[in-house]
Structure formats: C-alpha cells, structure tokens
Amino acid sequence: MNLAGLSIYPIIQAPMAGGATTPELVAAASNAGALGSLAAPLLSPQIMFEQIDTIRALTQRPFTVNLFVQQTPQPAPEIIAQAIDLLKPVWEPLGWTTLPLPAKWCEDFSAQLDALIAARPAAASFTFGILTREQVERLHAANIFVIGTATSAAEAQAWQQAGADAVCAQGIEAGGHRGTFIGAQEDGPGTMALVPQIADAVGLPLIAAGGIMDGRGIAAAFKLGAQAVQMGTAFLACSESGIHPAYKQRLIDAGMAPPAALTKLTRCFSGRYARGLANRFIDIMQPVERQLPPYPIQNALTGSIRAQAGKTGDTEMMSLWAGQGVGMVRAMPAAQLVETLVAEWRHASAAGATQE
Ligand SMILES: Cc1cc2nc3c(=O)[nH]c(=O)nc-3n(C[C@H](O)[C@H](O)[C@H](O)COP(=O)(O)O)c2cc1C
After folding, report:
1. Has domain 3-355 been given CATH number 3.90.870.10?
2. Do the strands 176-177 and 274-277 form a parallel or antiparallel pair, or are they unpaired?
3. Mean of per-residue pLDDT scores for the chain
4. 242 alpha-carbon distance from chain centroid
5. Strand positions, DSSP E, the chain
6. Rounded distance, CA 165 to CA 220, Å?
C-alpha cells in the first residue's frame, strides 16, 4: 500500500484525541474519499477494538489508527503534591478540598501497539516520540502503512531511518499537541517553512499539517512539496465530531474574535505544548507553566477539572484545542466538507495553472 492508495483524495482527517474523532467521523471521512483517522492515544486496547469494529461496520474504506509514543511515568510523590498545589487556583473555586488523583497516568503504550497490530488498520500514525525499527517492522509485517509525525527536518530524518512509509510535517500553526521529540516543543517552523525543508531532507511521501483549512491551503501544501494534507481543526466542527457542543460553538464563534486573542501554545493543561483557544484556565496557569510536570502527568491531573467543565459546559476550564486557522472553520457534515475542500482545491489549482 502506498499513501495515494489509501484514499481517493489526498486529504487526511487528522486523528484528534479526547473524543473528537468518533468512529462516525472517521467512517464519514473515509466514505467521502478522504482518509479518516481514529485517535486512540487515550483508549484502552478493549475500547480500541470496539471503536475499530464500529468503523468497519460503517465503511469498507481504509482508515488510520493513531497513538502517542510514550512511556508510563512513575512520578515521585513530591512532584504530584507540587503539581496539585500549583493547580489549586483552578480546582479550589470548584469547591473541592483537594484534587482527585487519576486512576492511571496513561494507557500502556506497548499494549496499545499490540492491539493496533492485531486490529490491522490499513495505516497507523504516531506522534510525541519515535518507534524503533523493530516496532516499524512489526507494523509492516501486519501490512500496516506507517506514518511518523515530525516538527523538524531532523525528526523527519529520524523517522526515515526508523523505516516509516511517510512523514506528517506538523507546523507550529497546528491545533492540538506538538509532536516534537527532538529539541524544544515550543519552538519550530510554521507549515510553509517546514514542508519544503522536510521535502528536501527526506525521500518519503510527505503529509502537510497545520493551518490548512480550505482548498487554497491544500493547493499551497502541494506546491511546497507535500503529497497529502492532514487537517484537524477543519474537521472539529463537523456534525460527526464528538467534542462538547460548547467547545464546537467557541470554534464557530472564533472567526468573529479579534485575531490576536485566538490561539495559544500552552503546556498548562497537559505538560506538553499544545495549541488551543485562549481561555481563563490558561490565563490562570500561565505564570507557573514551566513548573508543571510533563505529559502525561499534568494531563492526568487536570482530567477531573476538565471533566467537571464538560459537565457544566464551562469552556473557560476546558482544553479547546484548535489551530491558527480556526477563524476559517465551517460547521457541516464531514462528507460535505470533503466535497467542498476538493472543489476548492481544484479551483485553486486551476487558478494557479492559469497564472503560470
Ligand atoms: C483537538 C485536536 C486533537 C488532536 N489530537 C491528536 C492526536 O491524538 N494525535 C495526533 O497525532 N495529532 C493530534 N492532533 C494534531 C493533528 O494531527 C494535526 O497535526 C493538526 O490538527 C493539524 O493542524 P490544524 O488543526 O491546523 O489542521 C490534534 C489536533 C486537534 C485540533
């Protein structure tokens, strides 16, 4: 299988952990000719199997399953105590006397990888870290196309050396977590600077991600050397996306907000830099941002606060992941979005050809 063989159109609906990429969204994207992706980083092997079965009941088309490459931490009690204390300004106003401890820090990655391989989706994508050559070979032995996320040319080269089949170049505009595994997460080129650098540095098929919201963005990514695009924020407002309705509304309203106030790169929610709409949680936690423990510890610790915000619909206490292109988000069914993107992309490509 090659990248082009995975979908009719070179458009990947990005995997988005936290409930956005429901089996219905993945299947709708794939049925419409794009490549749907299920975000499985926060799913147990059993839920992974269940969601993959649901996707297979809804589509015959290929789809991707995505994981975070990570190790389960064993933080010292003092680290947890300090982190809970630093979060006090956000949990105390909820009337809580302490912050409930999470049942676990994260899912076990090796068990998730075993489940992914057993489920044999057509493709798998990875972020936050890099697989070993042996892990890539296990995926290949199961006929799974392997996509590695890179935020720099050095990371793309590392994925090439590990045996990946394609690289997803994630620019700093992107919504959600940065995939960085070499160097500082909060630094890095935007999509326009990153894609051509990776195209020059590696010989692998390249997927551009970050800030691509319509057909003009798709055409531009192709000009820069990409063979496909991965779009997250654009699919977040789709009818099938599983995010909280109040979060969806904030995305739709974002187009009307003053541009400077739109998105921020923050590690306050999870301990790993991620881009989302600015809100009160970020404002309160930003002064101590660098003292917070790394992912997944901070992510697990803020889980109860975010769950409470979900219950009350308080978007000021939710993580509202979104990319810099959020002002261009369109609320519509995924099939209509894919159809619209393809029409716009053809139009933009034809306009470009006329000017040449
Ligand atoms: C809500 C949200 C959740 C995300 N979760 C994941 C994830 O679980 N795995 C992953 O590889 N990328 C994740 N991403 C990043 C996307 O794969 C992609 O890089 C990004 O959405 C591209 O930028 P855009 O949002 O401007 O289109 C997420 C993005 C968003 C917006």
Report:
1. no
2. antiparallel
3. 96
4. 14
5. 11-13, 36-39, 63-68, 123-127, 145-150, 166-170, 176-177, 206-209, 228-231, 263-266, 274-277
6. 23
How many whole angstroms from 77 Cα to the centroid of ligand 1?
A: 32
User: How much distance in Å is there from the Cα of 17 to the middle of ligand 1?
Assistant: 8
Residues with CB under 6 A from ligand 1: 14-18, 20, 39, 41, 66, 125, 127, 149, 170, 173-176, 209-212, 230-234, 236, 321-323, 325
Q: Is the pLDDT of residue 261 over 90?
A: no
Predicted confidence (pLDDT) per residue in 176-224, tens digit: 999 999 999 999 999 999 999 999 999 999 999 999 999 999 999 999 9
Q: Is the pTM of this model over 0.70?
A: yes
How confident is the model over 83-87, as a mean pLDDT?
A: 98
Best residue for ligand 1 mutational test, from 11, 12, 16, 212 (most atoms within 8 Å of Cβ): 16
